[in-house]
Design brief:
Layout lengths: L3 E4 L1 E5 L2 E5 L4 E3 H5 L3 H13 L2 E5 L6 H18 L3 H4 L4 E3 L2 E4 L5 E2 L2 E5 L2 E7 H6 L11 H28 L21 E7 L2 H4 L6 E4 L5 E5 L5 E4 L10 E2 L6 E6 L1 H6 L8 E4 L8 E8 L6 E3 L5 E3 H13 L2 H6 L2 H4 L32 E4 L1
Parallel strand pairs: 4-5
Antiparallel strand pairs: 1-21, 2-3, 5-16, 6-7, 7-10, 8-9, 10-11, 11-18, 12-17, 13-16, 13-18, 14-15, 14-17, 19-20
Helix pairs in contact: 2-6, 3-6
This protein binds 2-oxoglutaric acid and fe (ii) ion (FE2).
The site of fe (ii) ion has 3 residues, from loops.
Protein name: Clavaminate synthase-like protein
GO molecular function: metal ion binding; oxidoreductase activity
Organism: Lophiostoma macrostomum CBS 122681
Length: 370
């Protein structure tokens, strides 16, 4: 049979054609029953790319999609509230509380600031039944929405972890689930993000800096464009490209902790968020499943470090001014993942509104017989 060469779809952004990377779609229903072929497929996606779509369009997953729609409504109401109410407690701890726009480095690197505000709710606090959330989202209906989302996301992540353990031949205490037990303290968190339009933030506060996540697994939901990933590999042409929002699916990616726990076999995903349409408000939801604080692993520098320490060090690097970030080892922000090829150049016309050349619904990967 002739070899298959995949031609990436592209989308126009800032006056040039940028790839839209294709990726595997894993079926949550099949994973739930540990279907051997689906287990093999998810392991392959983590070993080769470090990311995949998870289809939730089945009887078990649709529940989660409904929870997520309720959360979007809550987010709209929260982010429209006055800043004094949103910032009532500030950032209580690194994985819990409110961060205003411009707290970190932005999508375009040193000297820029991020363009999003964020509310994080800790899973441990929800489990204890006493989450410290700002007053606009403190009534019992809101707390149920937060709890339902955290519960659903946690279940989904555990199903994925379990499939990965099975696929990697892990047994007993060495299975990944065993370092993600619900009753042990962790920095697992539900993060709600609102990216503001450029006319509010100005051109110096845009997007979300390039990084790998601290987490073991990240479950990401956004109906809007903006997320970019850099596929791993040795081909220099593999640049940052967009992840097309796929209806009914979450985007799942491997973070540093699971990469370390897999002995560097899994790739963690280098990603950032850019202002795809600088005039729009963008909303995204990320569930960061993190390992128990005491979990010990070897990081990309070969240091023995606990998940809690890695979280604290990397969180500090995320929030440090860019001059300090530049002095931190590169293995911190990118979790030791190597980059191939060059980033896209600094934008010259930041306010230009890009338009997709392909509509999201038309996006499919194209296979060409060579
Ligand atoms: O907003 C997004 O789509 C991604 C956010 C992200 O990468 C993060 O919070 O770590
Ligand atoms: Fe991230």
């Amino acid at each position: 049979m002739a070899p298959q060469i995949e031609v990436p779809q592209t989308v126009e952004w800032q006056g040039k054609q940028v790839p839209v990377w294709s990726m595997s779609t894993i079926d949550y229903g099949l994973l739930l029953s540990q279907d051997p072929a689906e287990v093999e497929k998810v392991v392959k996606a983590c070993l080769e790319e470090g990311y995949f779509y998870l289809s939730l369009q089945n009887v078990d997953g649709r529940r989660m999609l409904g929870d997520q729609q309720d959360l979007l409504k809550l987010m709209h109401r929260f982010f429209e509230s006055p800043i004094e109410q949103k910032n009532e407690f500030g950032l209580i701890s690194s994985h819990l509380g409110y961060e205003p726009v411009g707290s970190r480095t932005g999508a375009f690197g040193p000297g820029t600031k991020d363009g999003y505000e964020m509310l994080k709710v800790s899973r441990d606090e929800i489990q204890r039944g006493s989450p410290k959330v700002p007053s606009p989202v403190k009534n019992s209906g809101d707390l149920s929405v937060l709890e339902n989302n955290i519960g659903s996301c946690n279940t989904i992540c555990k199903v994925i972890l379990s499939a990965l353990s099975t696929g990697m031949g892990l047994n007993g205490a060495s299975r990944f689930e065993n370092s993600h037990r619900n009753d042990r303290p962790s920095a697992t968190t539900l993060s709600m993000m609102h990216y503001l339009p450029e006319e509010i933030t100005g051109t110096n506060k845009r997007g979300h800096q390039k990084h790998t996540d601290i987490s073991s697994l990240t479950l990401l939901f956004s109906e809007q464009w903006g997320l970019q990933v850099r596929p791993p590999g040795t081909c220099g042409a593999r640049e940052m490209g967009f992840v097309a929002p796929k209806p009914g699916c979450a985007f799942v990616h491997v973070g540093d902790s699971l990469r370390f726990a897999s002995g560097m076999k899994f790739n963690s995903c280098i990603h950032r968020v850019v202002p795809f349409d600088p005039t729009e408000h963008r909303y995204s939801i990320a569930y960061f499943l993190r390992a128990e604080d005491d979990t010990m692993f070897q990081d990309s520098e070969g240091r023995f470090i606990t998940a809690g320490q890695w979280h604290d060090e990397k969180f500090k690097a995320f929030t440090d001014p860019w001059q300090w970030q530049a002095m931190a080892p590169k293995s911190m922000i990118l979790g030791g993942m190597k980059e191939d090829g060059a980033d896209d150049p600094e934008p010259t016309e930041p306010s230009k509104v890009p338009s997709p050349v392909v509509k999201p619904t038309e996006l499919t990967s194209v296979a060409v017989n060579a």
